[in-house]
Design a protein that fits this description.
The structure holds two protein chains of two kinds. Chain A is 67% helix and 4% strand. By secondary structure, chain A is mostly helical. Chain A has a two-stranded antiparallel sheet. In chain A, helix 5 packs parallel to helix 8 and helix 16 packs parallel to helix 19. The N and C termini of chain A lie far apart (67 Å). Chain B has two domains: 340 residues, Metal-dependent hydrolases (TIM Barrel, Alpha-Beta Barrel), CATH 3.20.20.140; 33 residues, no CATH class. In chain B, strand 5, helix 4 and strand 6 form a beta-alpha-beta unit. The longest helix of chain B has 17 residues. The N and C termini of chain B lie far apart (77 Å). Classes of the chains: A mainly alpha, B alpha/beta. Chains A and B meet through helix 17, helix 18 and helix 19 of A and helix 7, helix 8, helix 15 and helix 16 of B.
């Protein structure tokens, strides 16, 4: 952890009811909020607004931890205020995809999470999220509309670059709400999604990741010959059967149990 | 368990009178009932059936407790509950024999009202499957499922000897397979997080891994993964996502999840009402009593404010029909009736008109190519 000298930290004055104090670190801010019985958080934070990012960023390696401590301690309204205040600097303060994930995990607040993502913005998020695994580890903890917000901000072209294999697509799909799985595939584009299915393992993984409704759409899109090409052997076929839920088995049986040219 | 939680105090409407002893207004199939306490004592079937009758509980899923509380030499007071003192708990397979004897001791006409489960094994022991198989051999046509398997369980995890149990422990793999092959449900207690970590569900992935790997196994998620001092934000959203994602998952609204989140202070939460309507065929109710059968009436009665706000079809489903479907159907019938199978591979290839080489033939032909190159 980066060292700094507490004695020389730049401190900023705050006042409340005629009394004043100087704040230079997030820990000092937290104790100040505590001694005001946590009923005047906004009043103090507003006084520090112009320098709040600098206080959080006092040691760059502890900036994400500082940000998390502050946001976790605040009410939902005050969190939104701070997120708005920090704006695009949030990306710099968060620093890495892992820290963004940790922040989202610990906040568990759909509205604030969406606000954070929007504040960081598409460019900031693309700087943070460089691999598919980083993306799915963040998606895992986003609920409500937030997963759509994240994917939209990253943009379909960028997400397509991250998702290079069928198993990666499966990991993404497992971590979005089931009623957004079809939206996610359409976001990537059906041709792209289907092109990621290259063998029986890809097919099995993606099928097992999808809810029944989305599985039906996928199976419907795949010609019987393509499914046979993907599975390619009796052994893989039996393995697939072992890993499918009853409803997906039924869907696949219905599709493959009739001739391709049958109505 | 329920006796130490003020579940009955929250609803002024329900607090009114002794009528609560007679149970819910709606007959409820109790799908979560321990017939022993943490010292493996039981009041017996005559007692249970008496109170079931009084509370209009037609049927019950019953099981023992896989762990028993040690009465340690240094303890001056007799422990009855796992939290009564700091003494450890250990796995106790005898609980399944107690359950089997319990059912046999019931009068013949009443036995059909009881659905016993096997659960007396150490879920971190790779020989656990042998215990399950042995119980099915020793008591054929008795068991209706497996459970309640205790995995992550707040302080009980810390008090139990040995490796912490978890839903995705390799020792459980053959048990999940066993259950799938016989169409049996597996009732699991897997807290979504630790008592010391309440901002996100650090152990949820252990359950989802199982749901992914064993899609043919029906998992009943006891208390929706909640426990005393175990709570995380976005709970309703989490359960909604799980039920949407995994069709082999069922949840029960027993114990404190009901009083804390679903119907706090006797007031039904709108989100949970909507979730219950959405997944009405995947939800079960239970008392989670631990050998305190006289309390079954009030425990069932506390569901009334919630049930009153559901549609009739959903109410019937969660009070009875889901339990009938999951626990009561003869497993062999279930096996044949509900398990679809993929068509034979050769037929699929032929029907598709695809001209694919089987993978083994591809490998074979590649080998021949390599050999011919070598020879050349």
């Amino acid at each position: 952890m980066e060292q700094f000298r507490y004695g020389t930290v730049k401190r900023y004055p705050v006042s409340y009811a005629g009394e004043t104090a100087e704040i230079g670190t997030i820990d000092e801010l937290m104790v100040a909020l505590d001694v005001l019985n946590r009923r005047n958080d906004r009043e103090l934070i507003e006084q520090l607004a112009p320098v709040l990012a600098d206080i959080i960023n006092i040691g760059d390696r502890i900036a994400p931890a500082n940000l998390k401590i502050l946001l976790k301690a605040l009410s939902a309204q005050d969190r939104l205020y701070v997120v708005e205040l920090l704006g695009p600097r949030l990306g710099e303060l968060v620093g890495t995809a892992v820290e963004l994930r940790n922040l989202i995990v610990s906040l568990a607040d759909v509205e604030v999470e969406s606000a954070i993502l929007r504040a960081i913005g598409g460019n900031g998020l693309r700087r943070l999220i460089a691999t598919c695994q980083q993306l799915w580890e963040i998606l895992e903890w986003l609920f409500g509309e937030s997963d759509v917000v994240l994917l939209d901000l990253l943009g379909p072209d960028y997400v397509r670059r991250l998702v290079a294999h069928g198993h990666e697509l499966a990991e993404i799909l497992r971590r979005v709400d089931p009623d957004r799985q079809i939206w996610t595939i359409e976001f990537l584009g059906w041709p792209v999604a289907l092109s990621l299915l290259r063998d029986d393992v890809d097919f099995r993984e993606v099928l097992s990741a999808l809810c029944t409704e989305a599985s039906a759409k996928l199976i419907d899109r795949l010609p019987n010959t393509k499914i046979v090409e993907l599975v390619a052997s009796e052994l893989a076929w039996l393995e697939l059967g072992r890993h499918l839920s009853p409803s997906k088995t039924r869907l696949l049986s219905d599709k493959l149990g009739r001739r391709q040219d049958a109505p | 368990m329920p006796h130490s939680i003020p579940t009955w105090l929250g609803d002024a409407q329900l607090n009114a009178g002794l009528s609560r002893l007679s149970g819910s207004r709606y007959p409820i199939f109790d799908t979560h009932l321990h017939i022993v306490d943490f010292t493996q004592e039981t009041l017996g079937p005559e007692c249970l059936l008496h109170y079931m009758d009084r509370a209009h509980v037609p049927r019950a899923v019953i099981f023992g407790l896989p762990v028993t509380k040690q009465y340690a030499a240094n303890e001056r007071a007799v422990p009855r509950y796992y939290l009564d003192n700091d003494g450890p708990c250990y796995y106790y397979a005898g609980t399944d024999h107690i359950v089997a004897d319990f059912v046999r001791a019931a009068d013949r006409e009443s036995r059909g009202r009881l659905c016993p489960l096997v659960g007396g094994f150490n879920p971190t022991d790779r020989y656990a499957i042998r215990h399950v198989e042995r119980m099915f051999e020793m008591h054929p046509n008795l068991w209706h499922g497996i459970g309640e398997v205790l995995f992550r369980h707040d302080d009980l995890t810390a008090l139990t000897y040995g490796e912490p149990a978890r839903a995705n422990h390799p020792a459980m793999d053959p048990i999940y397979e066993f259950a799938a092959d016989r169409g049996l449900p597996v009732l699991v207690h897997q807290n979504v997080t630790s008592v010391s970590k309440s901002d996100h569900p650090i152990y949820l992935f252990e359950l989802t891994e199982v749901l992914n790997r064993f899609p043919r196994t029906r998992i009943v998620f006891a208390h929706c993964g909640m426990s005393r001092r175990v709570e995380v934000p976005l709970y309703h959203e989490m359960i909604d996502r799980l039920l949407g994602q995994y069709e082999n998952l069922y949840v029960d609204y027993s114990w404190i999840v009901f009083d804390t989140l679903i119907c706090p202070h006797g007031i039904p939460d709108d989100n949970w009402l909507a979730l219950t309507e959405k997944y009405s065929n995947r939800i079960l109710l239970g008392s989670d009593l631990v050998n305190k059968f006289e309390r079954i009436g009030p425990e069932m009665r506390r569901y009334d404010p919630f049930l009153d706000n559901l549609t009739e079809s959903t109410r019937i489903a969660i009070c009875n029909d889901n339990a009938e479907r999951i626990y009561r159907m003869d497993s062999k019938v279930l096996l044949e009736a509900e398990r679809p199978r993929l068509p034979a591979w050769d037929a699929v290839v032929e029907m598709s008109g695809a001209s694919v080489l089987r993978a083994d033939r591809v490998v074979e032909s590649q080998l021949h190519d390599d050999v011919s190159v070598d020879l050349a």
